[in-house]
Write a structure and sequence with these properties.
Length: 548
């Protein structure tokens, strides 16, 4: 472990479930307001009619579960899919050692050498598989056959539990370790992981280190209050501190291979229930804004804001001066505010806006303790990204479930505002957009606009998404509209539109001599890759600084 990680190790407070909650000194930093928020806050006073109501008892909870063991591995993504992309981009017959450091520059080489009438993506699987032994290829074939069996995938948890009941976990673990784990994960120890990354690098394949743990809401939540709630909260914070330590270690490992990326899951840095409560008001607020925008021009006036938008927030009724609140949102004083104005002014990073999120005793809204945990979460994320910046590692903040995503997006935007400045060579923080969501393109457009207004470089990683069945099932069971596109074709179309929109903005910025936004095209879909290659060529985008 490098010495630079020692402050994080020291910051992990040694608490058990019976000790009272004490401040986590390293993560108890105050919020950092943007210049715009500070200016607005200076002109606002006496916004609320009364102090926030009594905090309700801690909501039903249990210590959140984690899918997979925390110490399982750091995964190096992109072996098969990236290898095929590299194979398509590299000139036929070129030695692997001569390949560039990441996929994006090789894409530029391909587009400059292929005629406009030809298909640019011409995958040659042999370039990706030549270095694999016959035994390894047979193992991989078996792994993919198993993954392609729906019945086997559904039965897998029961099979593993059966082995555990028969006290044969040692056997099932050995099989999984030598097959699925060996192919999809880089290793369990630093030496194994770095070796795997370097081996991929020699083949011209870049890596994204991903700590393979993901938290979700507990399925068997029970009501907790008083000392029990505080003990559970303390435990959740200790666990988040431990995850921060693992992410520090991940940044250290990623830095040992030039131009590597590292993924960051925000659910690992906070109690998922805190994320859930703080995310609750986002959709009602968005719906209220759309309802108030009667003429569909994307803006609302003071009356619409006061009568429709503010009441959608849990603490909206506590606002004593709606006009003062509106003035804080209306940055240019034109009497109209759009959705980006609202996001910038009423975000959790503005302490003056936090009472709007606070519940009055019902299930809707946040607890007072959530604000302190929010500060810790942001401070953990800031510490991890700072470590990455110092070591030259680019960070990708993963997208997760929709009921956490508003706060995940918020933390990603705060990190981009703080770290995506200073020119094209600056370490970048990417936010991830799941294009199977119906609102994905609008969210990406709004976030880009926010970057323009606040003066930081927007960076997006575009994926299709990985929680479709869960999201649709949850929407059906709770009676709200599914956030997922109705068809696969709709997702393909939205993905391609999003990529085209951002590529056009990159090209425009380069023509104007400005720092362009950044795009990471994360897909296995050959048609999407082909379209991006064609646009890189037609728009004459310079990829030497890796904007794509």
């Amino acid at each position: 472990m490098p010495t630079s990680a020692s402050p994080v190790v020291a910051a992990v407070t040694r608490l058990n479930a019976t000790q009272p909650l004490r401040p986590f000194v390293a993560y108890a930093q105050p919020s950092r307001l943007s210049f715009i928020q500070a200016r607005r806050a200076a002109s606002s006073a006496a916004l609320y009619s009364r102090a926030a109501g009594p905090s309700p008892a801690h909501s039903p909870r249990a210590v959140s579960g984690v899918h997979g063991k925390a110490a399982v591995s750091l995964a190096a993504r992109g072996l098969s899919a990236s290898a095929l992309t590299r194979a398509a981009a590299a000139p036929r017959g070129a030695p692997a050692a001569a390949a560039k450091d990441s996929v994006a520059p090789a894409v530029a080489d391909a587009t400059s050498s292929v005629g406009s009438g030809e298909r640019l993506l011409q995958p040659d699987a042999s370039l990706a598989l030549d270095q694999q032994s016959v035994g390894k290829l047979l193992t991989v074939w078996m792994v993919y056959q198993a993954c392609g069996s729906t019945k086997l995938v559904q039965m897998a948890p029961k099979i593993l539990k059966l082995f555990e009941k028969l006290r044969l976990s040692w056997l099932s673990n050995a099989v999984v370790r030598r097959t699925f784990f060996a192919w999809f994960c880089a290793g369990e120890k630093e030496r194994e992981i770095v070796h795997a990354m370097r081996r991929l690098k020699e083949s011209g394949i870049g890596s994204i280190l991903d700590f393979s743990a993901e938290a979700d809401l507990p399925e068997d939540a029970t009501t907790a209050g008083g000392d029990l709630a505080e003990a559970a909260r303390a435990h959740a914070n200790v666990k988040a501190d431990a995850f921060a330590k693992e992410y520090f270690h991940g940044m250290h490992m990623a830095s040992q291979v030039p131009h590597a990326f590292a993924a960051l899951k925000i659910t690992g840095l906070a109690d998922p229930e805190v994320l859930y409560r703080l995310s609750m008001p986002h959709q009602p607020l968005r719906d209220a804004f759309l309802a108030a925008d009667h003429d569909n021009d994307g803006r609302v006036d003071y009356t619409q804001f006061k009568d429709t938008v503010l009441p959608a927030m849990p603490g909206g009724a506590r606002v004593a001066s709606p006009s003062g609140m509106f003035s804080m949102v209306d940055a240019n004083g034109d009497g109209q505010v759009d959705w980006v104005d609202i996001q910038m002014a009423l975000g959790m990073d503005n302490p003056l806006a936090r009472p709007l999120y606070l519940s009055d005793g019902g299930a809707y809204g946040a607890l007072e303790s959530d604000f302190e945990d929010y500060e810790r979460m942001v401070a953990r994320a800031r510490a991890v990204v700072q470590q990455a910046a110092e070591k030259g590692v680019r960070v990708m903040i993963d997208a997760e479930h929709t009921y956490f995503q508003p706060m995940i997006d918020h933390v990603a935007l705060v990190m981009q505002r703080e770290f995506n400045t200073g020119g094209s060579s600056q370490t970048l923080v990417y936010n991830t957009y799941q294009m199977y969501r119906t609102d994905a393109l609008q969210r990406m457009t709004d976030d880009y606009e926010r970057g323009v207004r606040e003066g930081w470089r927007f960076a997006a990683k575009m994926v299709r998404g990985a929680y479709m069945e869960l999201e649709r099932g949850r929407a059906a069971s709770l009676g709200y509209a599914s956030p997922i596109n109705p068809t696969l074709e709709a997702t393909h179309a939205l993905y391609d539109r999003g990529a085209a929109q951002l590529l056009d903005r990159i090209a425009t910025a380069q023509r104007e001599g400005a720092v362009p936004p950044a795009l990471f095209v994360a897909t296995h879909n050959n048609e999407s890759i082909e379209r991006v290659l064609q646009q890189l060529q037609s728009l004459q985008i310079d990829t030497s600084a890796e904007p794509v």
